[in-house]
Amino acid sequence: MSDTILSIRNVSKSFDLPRGKSLTAVDDVSFDVPRGSICVLLGPSGSGKSTILRMIAGLETQSAGQVLLNDVPIDGPGRDRGMVFQAYTSFDWMSVGRNVEFGMKINGVSADKRRGRAEHFIGLVGLSKFIDAYPSRLSGGMRQRVAIARSLANAPEVLLMDEPFGALDAETRWQMQELMIEVAEASGTTMVIVTHDIEEAIYLADRIVFLSSHPGRLKEEIIPSFKPGRLKRKEDAIALPGYAELEHKIMRMMREEGGH
Ligand SMILES: Nc1ncnc2c1ncn2[C@@H]1O[C@H](COP(=O)(O)OP(=O)(O)OP(=O)(O)O)[C@@H](O)[C@H]1O
Prior knowledge:
- With 260 residues, this protein is α/β, with parallel strands linked by helices.
- 36% of the residues lie in helices and 25% in strands.
- The strands form two sheets. It has a six-stranded mixed sheet, with helices on both faces. Strands 2-1-4-5 form a four-stranded antiparallel sheet, with helices on one face.
- The radius of gyration is 18 Å and the shape is globular.
Protein backbone atom coordinates (compact mmCIF):
# COMPACT_ATOMS: atom_id res chain seq x y z
CA MET A 1 0.00 0.00 0.00
CA SER A 2 1.16 3.48 -0.76
CA ASP A 3 2.24 5.82 2.00
CA THR A 4 -0.53 8.23 1.06
CA ILE A 5 -3.93 7.30 2.44
CA LEU A 6 -5.87 10.39 1.36
CA SER A 7 -5.37 12.58 -1.68
CA ILE A 8 -7.19 15.83 -2.18
CA ARG A 9 -6.58 16.79 -5.80
CA ASN A 10 -7.57 20.16 -7.22
CA VAL A 11 -10.76 20.09 -5.20
CA SER A 12 -13.27 22.92 -5.43
CA LYS A 13 -16.68 23.22 -3.87
CA SER A 14 -19.37 25.77 -4.67
CA PHE A 15 -22.70 26.07 -2.93
CA ASP A 16 -25.81 27.32 -4.71
CA LEU A 17 -27.33 30.30 -2.98
CA PRO A 18 -30.79 31.85 -3.45
CA ARG A 19 -31.48 34.03 -6.51
CA GLY A 20 -29.12 32.10 -8.77
CA LYS A 21 -25.99 33.09 -6.86
CA SER A 22 -23.27 30.73 -5.78
CA LEU A 23 -20.46 30.73 -3.24
CA THR A 24 -17.05 29.15 -3.74
CA ALA A 25 -16.21 27.64 -0.35
CA VAL A 26 -13.14 25.69 -1.50
CA ASP A 27 -11.03 26.68 -4.48
CA ASP A 28 -8.59 24.29 -6.16
CA VAL A 29 -7.14 22.74 -3.01
CA SER A 30 -4.63 19.87 -3.22
CA PHE A 31 -2.80 18.01 -0.46
CA ASP A 32 -1.94 14.46 0.57
CA VAL A 33 -2.31 12.83 3.97
CA PRO A 34 0.37 10.23 4.77
CA ARG A 35 -0.90 6.98 6.29
CA GLY A 36 -0.82 6.98 10.09
CA SER A 37 -0.24 10.73 10.33
CA ILE A 38 -2.15 13.49 12.11
CA CYS A 39 -3.14 16.18 9.62
CA VAL A 40 -4.64 19.39 10.98
CA LEU A 41 -6.74 21.70 8.81
CA LEU A 42 -6.21 25.19 10.17
CA GLY A 43 -7.41 28.58 8.98
CA PRO A 44 -9.74 31.44 9.80
CA SER A 45 -13.50 31.11 9.87
CA GLY A 46 -14.91 30.46 6.42
CA SER A 47 -11.76 28.96 4.94
CA GLY A 48 -13.55 25.77 3.99
CA LYS A 49 -12.06 23.48 6.67
CA SER A 50 -15.35 21.78 7.56
CA THR A 51 -16.36 21.57 3.92
CA ILE A 52 -13.13 19.73 3.07
CA LEU A 53 -13.63 17.38 6.02
CA ARG A 54 -17.23 16.71 4.98
CA MET A 55 -16.07 15.88 1.45
CA ILE A 56 -13.56 13.39 2.89
CA ALA A 57 -16.39 11.96 5.02
CA GLY A 58 -18.51 11.63 1.89
CA LEU A 59 -21.19 13.90 3.34
CA GLU A 60 -20.63 16.51 0.64
CA THR A 61 -19.67 16.10 -3.04
CA GLN A 62 -16.95 18.24 -4.56
CA SER A 63 -17.82 20.47 -7.54
CA ALA A 64 -14.46 19.76 -9.19
CA GLY A 65 -11.36 17.67 -8.53
CA GLN A 66 -10.93 14.36 -6.77
CA VAL A 67 -10.95 13.10 -3.20
CA LEU A 68 -9.23 9.71 -3.06
CA LEU A 69 -8.99 7.21 -0.22
CA ASN A 70 -6.37 4.56 -0.97
CA ASP A 71 -6.41 5.80 -4.59
CA VAL A 72 -10.17 5.17 -4.90
CA PRO A 73 -12.59 8.10 -5.35
CA ILE A 74 -14.83 8.65 -2.32
CA ASP A 75 -18.47 8.45 -3.29
CA GLY A 76 -20.31 8.61 0.04
CA PRO A 77 -19.88 7.87 3.72
CA GLY A 78 -18.21 4.60 4.62
CA ARG A 79 -17.06 2.53 7.56
CA ASP A 80 -13.45 3.19 6.60
CA ARG A 81 -13.94 6.77 7.90
CA GLY A 82 -15.11 7.65 11.41
CA MET A 83 -16.36 11.11 12.27
CA VAL A 84 -16.31 12.97 15.59
CA PHE A 85 -18.20 16.29 15.76
CA GLN A 86 -17.99 19.19 18.19
CA ALA A 87 -21.47 18.49 19.53
CA TYR A 88 -21.75 15.40 21.69
CA THR A 89 -23.42 12.70 19.69
CA SER A 90 -23.77 9.89 22.21
CA PHE A 91 -27.09 8.13 22.83
CA ASP A 92 -28.16 9.23 26.30
CA TRP A 93 -30.40 6.21 26.89
CA MET A 94 -27.56 3.73 26.40
CA SER A 95 -24.64 3.09 28.75
CA VAL A 96 -21.12 4.05 27.68
CA GLY A 97 -20.45 0.38 26.85
CA ARG A 98 -23.59 0.10 24.69
CA ASN A 99 -22.81 3.38 22.96
CA VAL A 100 -19.40 2.09 21.92
CA GLU A 101 -20.86 -1.28 20.88
CA PHE A 102 -23.63 0.29 18.83
CA GLY A 103 -21.77 0.86 15.57
CA MET A 104 -20.19 -2.57 15.73
CA LYS A 105 -23.65 -4.11 16.22
CA ILE A 106 -24.90 -2.35 13.08
CA ASN A 107 -21.81 -3.65 11.27
CA GLY A 108 -22.64 -7.23 12.30
CA VAL A 109 -19.79 -7.80 14.78
CA SER A 110 -20.66 -10.69 17.15
CA ALA A 111 -21.71 -9.88 20.74
CA ASP A 112 -18.53 -11.40 22.23
CA LYS A 113 -16.19 -9.49 20.01
CA ARG A 114 -18.18 -6.32 20.49
CA ARG A 115 -17.82 -6.37 24.24
CA GLY A 116 -14.09 -7.05 24.05
CA ARG A 117 -13.45 -4.30 21.54
CA ALA A 118 -15.65 -1.85 23.44
CA GLU A 119 -13.71 -2.56 26.64
CA HIS A 120 -10.42 -2.07 24.82
CA PHE A 121 -11.29 1.32 23.35
CA ILE A 122 -13.09 2.55 26.45
CA GLY A 123 -9.88 1.69 28.32
CA LEU A 124 -7.82 3.53 25.72
CA VAL A 125 -9.77 6.75 26.32
CA GLY A 126 -9.56 6.26 30.10
CA LEU A 127 -13.22 5.51 30.82
CA SER A 128 -13.08 1.89 32.06
CA LYS A 129 -14.68 2.84 35.36
CA PHE A 130 -17.61 4.40 33.54
CA ILE A 131 -18.48 1.59 31.15
CA ASP A 132 -21.93 1.16 32.73
CA ALA A 133 -22.59 4.87 33.27
CA TYR A 134 -24.99 6.90 31.13
CA PRO A 135 -23.46 9.71 29.03
CA SER A 136 -25.84 12.35 30.43
CA ARG A 137 -24.13 11.86 33.79
CA LEU A 138 -20.66 12.51 32.34
CA SER A 139 -18.75 15.74 31.80
CA GLY A 140 -18.29 17.19 28.30
CA GLY A 141 -14.75 15.84 28.02
CA MET A 142 -15.85 12.38 29.05
CA ARG A 143 -18.70 12.41 26.55
CA GLN A 144 -16.28 13.35 23.82
CA ARG A 145 -14.10 10.41 24.91
CA VAL A 146 -17.14 8.16 24.42
CA ALA A 147 -17.57 9.52 20.88
CA ILE A 148 -13.89 8.90 20.13
CA ALA A 149 -14.00 5.35 21.53
CA ARG A 150 -17.16 4.66 19.53
CA SER A 151 -15.52 5.81 16.30
CA LEU A 152 -12.31 3.89 16.95
CA ALA A 153 -14.18 0.68 17.79
CA ASN A 154 -15.38 0.55 14.18
CA ALA A 155 -11.71 0.36 13.15
CA PRO A 156 -11.82 3.25 10.69
CA GLU A 157 -8.78 3.82 8.52
CA VAL A 158 -9.18 7.54 9.05
CA LEU A 159 -10.65 9.39 12.00
CA LEU A 160 -12.16 12.73 10.97
CA MET A 161 -12.70 15.30 13.71
CA ASP A 162 -14.44 18.65 13.30
CA GLU A 163 -13.51 21.04 16.14
CA PRO A 164 -13.77 18.05 18.50
CA PHE A 165 -12.72 19.96 21.61
CA GLY A 166 -14.24 23.33 20.74
CA ALA A 167 -16.93 23.05 23.40
CA LEU A 168 -14.60 22.02 26.21
CA ASP A 169 -12.94 24.15 28.88
CA ALA A 170 -9.23 24.88 28.49
CA GLU A 171 -7.94 22.24 30.90
CA THR A 172 -10.12 19.43 29.53
CA ARG A 173 -9.19 20.46 26.03
CA TRP A 174 -5.54 20.13 26.83
CA GLN A 175 -6.11 16.67 28.37
CA MET A 176 -8.02 15.61 25.27
CA GLN A 177 -5.22 16.79 23.01
CA GLU A 178 -2.75 14.64 24.95
CA LEU A 179 -5.22 11.77 24.77
CA MET A 180 -5.32 12.05 20.97
CA ILE A 181 -1.54 11.73 20.82
CA GLU A 182 -1.81 8.59 22.94
CA VAL A 183 -4.60 7.20 20.78
CA ALA A 184 -2.72 7.95 17.56
CA GLU A 185 0.37 6.21 18.90
CA ALA A 186 -1.56 3.19 20.22
CA SER A 187 -3.89 2.68 17.25
CA GLY A 188 -1.87 3.99 14.30
CA THR A 189 -5.08 5.55 12.97
CA THR A 190 -4.71 8.38 10.49
CA MET A 191 -6.42 11.51 11.78
CA VAL A 192 -7.67 14.63 10.04
CA ILE A 193 -8.60 17.31 12.56
CA VAL A 194 -10.25 20.67 11.90
CA THR A 195 -9.49 23.45 14.33
CA HIS A 196 -8.87 27.17 14.54
CA ASP A 197 -6.85 26.77 17.71
CA ILE A 198 -3.23 27.45 16.78
CA GLU A 199 -1.71 25.78 19.87
CA GLU A 200 -3.81 22.69 19.29
CA ALA A 201 -2.69 22.53 15.68
CA ILE A 202 1.01 22.88 16.48
CA TYR A 203 0.88 20.34 19.30
CA LEU A 204 -1.14 17.68 17.47
CA ALA A 205 -0.09 17.96 13.87
CA ASP A 206 2.48 16.03 11.95
CA ARG A 207 1.38 18.34 9.14
CA ILE A 208 -0.71 21.50 9.12
CA VAL A 209 -2.74 22.42 6.06
CA PHE A 210 -3.28 26.17 6.38
CA LEU A 211 -6.20 27.57 4.40
CA SER A 212 -7.08 31.15 3.56
CA SER A 213 -10.67 32.30 3.53
CA HIS A 214 -13.28 33.37 0.98
CA PRO A 215 -12.63 31.36 -1.01
CA GLY A 216 -10.86 28.59 0.88
CA ARG A 217 -7.48 28.14 -0.74
CA LEU A 218 -4.39 26.29 0.35
CA LYS A 219 -2.04 28.93 1.72
CA GLU A 220 0.77 26.74 3.00
CA GLU A 221 1.52 23.22 4.17
CA ILE A 222 3.50 23.43 7.38
CA ILE A 223 5.49 20.60 8.94
CA PRO A 224 6.24 21.43 12.59
CA SER A 225 9.71 19.97 12.21
CA PHE A 226 10.94 21.50 15.46
CA LYS A 227 9.22 18.57 17.22
CA PRO A 228 11.40 15.49 17.52
CA GLY A 229 8.23 13.39 17.04
CA ARG A 230 4.94 13.19 18.91
CA LEU A 231 5.14 14.48 22.44
CA LYS A 232 3.10 13.07 25.30
CA ARG A 233 3.02 16.34 27.22
CA LYS A 234 1.93 19.57 25.68
CA GLU A 235 4.23 21.68 27.83
CA ASP A 236 7.20 19.80 26.40
CA ALA A 237 6.21 20.94 22.92
CA ILE A 238 5.75 24.54 24.05
CA ALA A 239 9.19 24.54 25.67
CA LEU A 240 11.01 23.49 22.50
CA PRO A 241 13.03 25.98 20.51
CA GLY A 242 11.05 26.61 17.36
CA TYR A 243 7.63 26.48 19.00
CA ALA A 244 7.24 30.21 19.62
CA GLU A 245 8.55 31.04 16.17
CA LEU A 246 6.00 28.80 14.47
CA GLU A 247 3.19 30.09 16.67
CA HIS A 248 4.17 33.63 15.77
CA LYS A 249 4.26 32.82 12.05
CA ILE A 250 0.83 31.16 12.13
CA MET A 251 -0.69 33.98 14.18
CA ARG A 252 0.51 36.41 11.53
CA MET A 253 -0.99 34.26 8.79
CA MET A 254 -4.30 34.09 10.68
CA ARG A 255 -4.34 37.87 11.06
CA GLU A 256 -3.61 38.44 7.38
CA GLU A 257 -6.13 35.88 6.19
CA GLY A 258 -8.83 36.55 8.73
CA GLY A 259 -8.72 40.31 8.29
CA HIS A 260 -8.07 41.03 11.98
N1 LIG B 1 -24.37 24.11 2.93
C1 LIG B 1 -23.87 25.32 2.65
N2 LIG B 1 -24.54 26.20 1.89
C2 LIG B 1 -24.03 27.41 1.60
N3 LIG B 1 -22.83 27.87 2.04
C3 LIG B 1 -22.12 27.03 2.80
C4 LIG B 1 -22.59 25.72 3.16
N4 LIG B 1 -21.64 25.13 3.94
C5 LIG B 1 -20.63 26.03 4.07
N5 LIG B 1 -20.92 27.15 3.40
C6 LIG B 1 -20.06 28.35 3.27
O1 LIG B 1 -18.78 27.91 2.82
C7 LIG B 1 -17.75 28.66 3.44
C8 LIG B 1 -16.79 27.71 4.13
O2 LIG B 1 -17.47 27.10 5.21
P1 LIG B 1 -16.80 26.07 6.19
O3 LIG B 1 -17.77 25.76 7.27
O4 LIG B 1 -16.24 24.93 5.42
O5 LIG B 1 -15.58 26.92 6.76
P2 LIG B 1 -14.70 26.68 8.06
O6 LIG B 1 -13.32 27.05 7.69
O7 LIG B 1 -14.93 25.31 8.58
O8 LIG B 1 -15.31 27.77 9.04
P3 LIG B 1 -15.49 27.77 10.63
O9 LIG B 1 -14.11 27.76 11.20
O10 LIG B 1 -16.21 29.05 10.88
O11 LIG B 1 -16.30 26.56 10.97
C9 LIG B 1 -18.42 29.63 4.39
O12 LIG B 1 -18.51 30.89 3.76
C10 LIG B 1 -19.79 29.02 4.60
O13 LIG B 1 -20.75 30.00 4.89
